Amino acid sequence: MRILGTLRSGLYRLYDRRIVRNLGPGEPVPRHVGVITDGNRRWAKEFGASTAHGHRMGAGRILDLLDWCEEIGVEVVTLYVLSKENLDRPAAEVAVLTDIIARMASDIADRETASVQLVGDLRMIPEPLRSQLLGAQQRSASGEPTKKRLTVNIAVGYGGRQEVVDAVRSWLEDERAAGATIDGALEDLDEACIAEHLYTKGQPDPDLIIRTSGEQRLSGFLMWQSAYSEFYFCEAYWPDFRRTDFLRAVRAYGQRNRRYGR
Q1: Is residue 259 very low, low, confident or very high in pLDDT (cuts 50, 70, 90)?
Q2: What are the structural domain ranges in the chain?
Q3: CA–CA separation, 152 vs 141, rounded Å?
Q4: SS3 content of the chain, % helix, strand, coil (to 5)
Q5: pLDDT band at 16; cut points 50, 70, 90
Q6: Could you tell me where the DSSP H helices lie in 37-179?
Q7: Which residues are catalytic?
Q8: CATH number listed for the domain at residues 28-254
Q9: What is the SS3 string spanning 149-215?
Q10: DSSP bridge partners of 82
Q11: pTM
């Protein structure tokens, strides 16, 4: 069995290198990849492990993903790790999950080549997670800017509808501060006004969104930004997601003809 496993691993490495070689200068690589890291709990249940162990394995896989993204030149990664609905889970599970997310954010902030940006309604995030996440974001921003090749958005307490509501509210507050009337504000309102007040303002929209565990829905993830994204659904649970699976998703993206609704 050990020999078979070693052989399989070797074949996967050869396969991975072949895919990477094909991602040459003429092949499109997504600038922004969104990932719905789904399946931690089901993975744990299938292997008879605790839910906490499933979440820890998932957090470790996220760190692997960032390596893979940097390898091929991805500029932005958005990780959907804690939705606003997840906060309604049993208190004990939420406590464990938030502790794992805080540690993961700290590990990402310690990377010289990555910067952390929080994406979500931080008012919903319980303490001490909120302070820990803000600390990780601040710490990652203090590094040497020239080394920051990858922006990592950590979506916590996130809801796609809430993001649009917050963007409109933020825009209206800016208009009011500028002395605009309601009629004047409505006259100026367009898509750019909303985009400039999203959690991801200033970033490119996601080119590719990956969801694991076989589910084929967005669950409110980046609803505004994903209007013209390409989607890739993978059967593997998130802790089982391999570099090979990631490269397959990128290859599938490169083979598609993006028409942006035209």
Answers
A1: confident
A2: 28-254
A3: 12
A4: 55, 15, 30
A5: low
A6: 40-46, 51-72, 91-109, 129-141, 160-177
A7: 38, 86
A8: 3.40.1180.10
A9: CEEEEEEEEECHHHHHHHHHHHHHHHHHHCCCCHHHHHHHCCHHHHHCCCCCCCCCCCCEEEECCCC
A10: 156
A11: 0.89
